[in-house]
């Protein structure tokens, strides 16, 4: 145990943890949305994210950019990031809806047991990530350096870079927009209605199929944004990148209270930061162990996560 | 009714899939039974082709396959067949695949297994079957202490490379503060431990990461490196993590030198790090620069596989060629092949190969070189380092 | 619900349902002979390749057939154990590989010369200890966590398995990736004096695995038909109702966890005994997820279903090794997990109740299908 190291590096570990946590939080929203409405762990959500990372890299590749190209000018960068996000969001959204149509909808028609959904989700996840693995030769794909990280704020040994600020701000903005959408819009009301009680929602004239597609789409959109942030921060993707981060995102969703949007944000940020503290205290190899131990402890005292579940009852 | 129909279609599709796959089983075993006395045999590759470590295995397989293709082109026929066995790099999978390999009596030798773990699990089976193996990459020291007669190692083990890397940091970089980390693999941790011993008190901090493909965010490690004030970092591990760590170190403003072992000597390193961040990174390798040996391996490899040769591709190429030379000399049984390996003295592109009684490379022939990544992303020879 | 059970509708006349019904109506001696015949055939499986025409289509190409059978045997064992937890008691466990690891590591620690304990016991002596340790670990995990419901339990068990993997990888005592070498094989000699459980031939390991499976099936089947089994059923269907009716839910849930852990540990023991070497690389999360897929695919809550599912998750990828696709003539083995994923989806879509469902489950499902809201 290395307490002095943790205390000395407390600031930097917090900052890097928040940036990682923001990405996890965006990713976790997909799990939480689907769970809130369908009570289903959408295992294939990790692959929704994965295809987002590849889509943005491919689009940047059209402009002749790879990991070795110099950083373009400011306006070009903004344009490229937006383009990358559009590509990632489209790819992730299409994947999410595709998975819903192929792997879940046929089961829902038959009112199949919940476990069956979980297994088709696992099947879809395997099929997609392994296909990507074969196509890419299981090699890594480098990301162009669109943002040259520079310190914006320096407090003691804590450096906050432009990229870290971008990631956290963007995550908060997306979160805010999503929250508004769910709580204020007509479609959002439909989502909340189905989450609360699918049968009465159907009786009240809510088109359940459309609502479910919408939920998958929203989760896909968030995953697409998260994918671009991940690309910019980590700088490389690979066929199993989704699976690895997916476990963390799922953990974050449960930590905050699965089915609860704000819980996902809280869980993601908390997980990112606590993992870093754990790594500082015990060594990086214990990073994930620390987060799981924390999860178990928190669930023992708050069995439905920090903020509790329920998408339907989330108040404005 | 619709459901019944759908179910029927599904059933038919499944049966069709199975029948289709079954139909193509039959043609996988045919081969060139050429009249030439030394033809019709196989040299096998045993190692990961899929699974999380597949990228490392594929490098080796392609080096091995290139050697056999060139040999067959020279002969003008499909004289020696390629036989690939995918262990997934997993000691749990390896025995079943190894038992399958030994049932093929045409196999005269095996290039592999690349990893130490799967070697421990599969080599006893090869030993019992008497098929000689030449591993291009498994560097765990204890492998040669098992009294396996068929075991041969075409690279220096961790005990030879570790001190060299340590010496380089001490004597060439003259670093007084060094951070040492590893990926907890048998290879990476073994190497890092030897480096720590060599460097002694100049090690100011250590850390451990997860293995390749299991971790991508190294911000905690990066933070520790910066906080330790180290001017050099040694990472015992493979190129993917190495490249990511280099990239994230550079992003965080650390300007020291990253040093790694041969597991990082791969174009994938710059793919992960980006050329500009990779510049100046040093990797040690118990091999000589290929341009020293002459020949056109680097070019040929690029032409054949449309990608640059990676970690151990050259050693695998040599290992396959050692077997092919043996076949040329008429060693067409596994016993003769094993005897031949005991006395071989082969000048390859990465090294000169001569095995001791335990299957290790002759210590007098081991050379460790340092390579440095330049601005085009290639690891170019820097200098030879003393190993003790 | 009861009306469906009394008068099976036309749709209920599925092939296996009828076959099973017919079988259940036969006199005892016919049933015993039938079961014995199936067992005898199972023992003869290593010689499948000798059957003309059909045999070569069944055996695996890229992996030695007896080894593939042995692999299937420990997957089946794991599926049987997980079936107790998921199928009977209805507890979603995503970290079952943890118990497999505990069993295997206990054997390694007690027997391998690399171990710090320095005991170097023979394999057989380590077996009861390994099973006991696995069972205790099941209780330790279960005691605090079984209060959690459904998906929360799932993520906690998943975390538990990851913690075990990380501990195995990162502590000196468990040797991480370096692993344990020279784990002894099971005892026994052939008539010519050579070891019965050698390294070259996996057939004896398969037979051993099969024997263990038969014993486990007998045990689990009896439990399922006892008071314990009925309590599990009650908990699975409605935990609150069960609690109110006087079923001590925590106790029986712990039972399910401990028994599942025991069987999982046994799988690890078999694995270590065949392997001779093991390290932390085997106990990855995907392993648990695969076994769970096997149980549900085969038919959760039903022993023959779990056996079939467990065998399939090992067999399908192994069978796809060494096969070339008919169009591009590249090796299909790279795609085997992708194909496998697609097969899982297909099976679940066409048979959401599993390939061989428990009869009760199949009827429930039919009930639910009728309730399905048109969408």
Automatic annotation (TrEMBL), chain A:
Taxonomy-wise, where does this protein's organism fall, top ranks first? Bacteria, Bacillati, Actinomycetota, Actinomycetes, Micromonosporales
Q: What sections of the sequence does the record tag as coiled-coil?
A: none
Q: Which family does it belong to?
A: Belongs to the binding-protein-dependent transport system permease family. LivHM subfamily.
Q: What is its main location?
A: membrane
- Record-level GO BP terms: D-alanine transmembrane transport; L-alanine transport; L-isoleucine import across plasma membrane
Q: What is this protein called?
A: Branched-chain amino acid ABC transporter permease
Q: Give the residue spans that cross the bilayer.
A: 20-41, 48-65, 77-103, 115-136, 163-182, 211-230, 250-274, 286-303
Q: InterPro entries, alphabetically? A: ABC_transp_permease, BCAA_transport_permease
The way it spans or sits in the membrane comes to: Multi-pass membrane protein
Q: Is Cell inner membrane a UniProt keyword of this protein?
A: yes
Organism's domain of life? Bacteria
The subcellular localization recorded is:
Cell membrane
- Gene Ontology cellular component list: plasma membrane
Q: Does the keyword Metal-binding apply?
A: no
Sorted alphabetically, the keyword list is: Amino-acid transport, Cell inner membrane, Cell membrane, Membrane, Transmembrane, Transmembrane helix, Transport
Pfam families recorded for this chain?
Answer: BPD_transp_2
Q: Name one GO molecular function term.
A: L-phenylalanine transmembrane transporter activity
From TrEMBL, chain C:
| Protein name (database record) | Branched-chain amino acid ABC transporter permease
Q: Which domain of life is it from?
A: Bacteria
Which organism does this sequence originate in? Mangrovihabitans endophyticus
- Which InterPro entries did the record assign? ABC_transp_permease, LivM-like
**Which gene is the coding source of this polypeptide chain?**
livM
This protein's membrane topology, according to the annotation, is:
Multi-pass membrane protein
Identify one Gene Ontology CC term for this UniProt entry: plasma membrane
> Where does it localize?
Cell membrane
- GO: which molecular function terms? branched-chain amino acid transmembrane transporter activity
Q: Any transmembrane segments, and where?
A: 28-47, 68-88, 94-111, 123-146, 152-168, 205-223, 254-272, 284-313, 333-351
Keywords for the protein's UniProt record, in alphabetical order? Cell membrane, Membrane, Transmembrane, Transmembrane helix
